[in-house]
């Protein structure tokens, strides 16, 4: 499958930031533009994370709401009332990172149900943020790779180091991994049993060895990127430090982009 057009806006700058413990955090930039066709396709792709278009008519039926009203008031995090805006930012960062590892790095990254099954639209989903799977062949192999990723968004002024937060939360992923894998498998069982069973290659490393890579990602507005002391980040205590990737994705007017995508996703449904 060809990658979505918005992926072309994500570029590797070739630059890095050296952290306090001597690691390199690679810097990517999202050069988003005012291209209606790309933005519409991106909004459609984005909407599918919360509500499949084929389900929308049945979900809206009997509510007395339009498609746009239903999505805006029932499915999408609130644009203004806390914690809605921060949940919007966090979801955007996670979905962008999921797109990155699937369409740029080449991992399989199932996300079905993670956002659409929420009972409270303003409360972020539990568990590991993003998990990617790479299969060396048809049978389980020590060369299979599990990429376990934590993402933190920073689009408004803050005193918190978002990269450090992602590193800290990534360090907890080994504990949460089993539950997150089970949740992915259970959601997939409702859609495609064959896909669901592929997750099993990563549920018992003792019997089926594989490579485990962790990643910590900060998705930042340019203004925040320029002010944040990212070079003070320290991953020296990370339990999988030998297989840890640090990534920063920056871009201009990121919160404006987030709100514009949600608006387009609702209004074009």
3D structure, described in words:
With 269 residues, this protein is of the alpha/beta class. It has one domain (5-30, 84-254). The chain has helices at 36-47, 53-60, 67-75, 84-104, 162-170, 173-189, 193-198, 222-227, 254-267; strands spanning 10-18, 24-30, 130-134, 145-154, 211-221, 244-251. It has a 6-stranded mixed sheet with strand order 1-2-6-5-4-3, with helices on both faces. A hairpin with a 5-residue loop joins β1 (10-18) and β2. α3 (67-75) crosses α9 (254-267). The relative contact order is 0.18. The model has no long low-confidence stretch (mean pLDDT 96).
Q: Descriptors for this entry?
A:
6 strands; single chain; about 270 residues; six-stranded mixed β-sheet; globular
Number of domains: 1
- How many beta-strand runs? 6
Strand content: 15-25%
Uncertain runs are none
What best-fitting shape do the alpha-carbon axes yield? globular
Radius of gyration over C-alpha positions, nearest whole angstrom: 19 Å
Number of helices: 9
Question: What separation lies between the terminal Cα atoms?
Answer: 23 Å
Strand order of the largest sheet: 1-2-6-5-4-3
Query: Average pLDDT, to the nearest integer?
Result: 96
Q: Helical residue percent?
A: 25-40%
Structural class, from secondary structure content? alpha/beta
Largest sheet: 6 strands, mixed
Give the SSE order as H and E letters: EEHHHHEEHHHEHEH
């Amino acid at each position: 499958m060809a990658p979505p057009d918005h992926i072309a806006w994500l570029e590797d700058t070739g630059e890095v930031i050296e952290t306090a413990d001597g690691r390199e955090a690679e810097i990517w930039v999202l050069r988003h533009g005012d291209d209606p066709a790309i933005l519409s396709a991106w909004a459609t792709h984005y909407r599918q994370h919360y509500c499949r278009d084929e389900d929308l008519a049945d979900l809206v039926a009997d509510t007395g709401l339009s498609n746009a009203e239903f999505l805006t008031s029932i499915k999408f995090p609130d644009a203004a009332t806390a914690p809605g805006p921060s949940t919007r930012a966090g979801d955007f960062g996670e979905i962008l990172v999921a797109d990155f590892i699937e369409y740029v790095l080449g991992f399989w990254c199932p996300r079905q149900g993670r956002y659409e099954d929420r009972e409270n639209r303003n409360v972020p989903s539990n568990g590991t943020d993003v998990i990617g799977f790479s299969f060396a062949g048809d049978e389980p192999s020590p060369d299979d790779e599990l990429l376990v990723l934590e993402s933190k968004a920073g689009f408004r002024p803050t005193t918190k180091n978002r990269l450090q937060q992602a590193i800290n939360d990534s360090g907890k992923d080994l504990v949460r991994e089993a539950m997150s894998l089970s949740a992915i498998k259970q959601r997939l069982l409702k859609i495609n049993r064959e896909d669901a069973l592929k997750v099993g290659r990563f549920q018992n490393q003792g019997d089926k060895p594989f490579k485990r890579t962790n990643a910590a990602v900060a998705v930042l507005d340019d203004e925040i990127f320029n002010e944040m002391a990212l070079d003070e980040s320290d991953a020296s205590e990370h339990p999988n430090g030998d297989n840890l990737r640090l990534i920063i994705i920056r871009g201009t007017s990121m919160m404006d982009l987030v709100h514009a995508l949600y608006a387009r996703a609702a209004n074009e449904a």
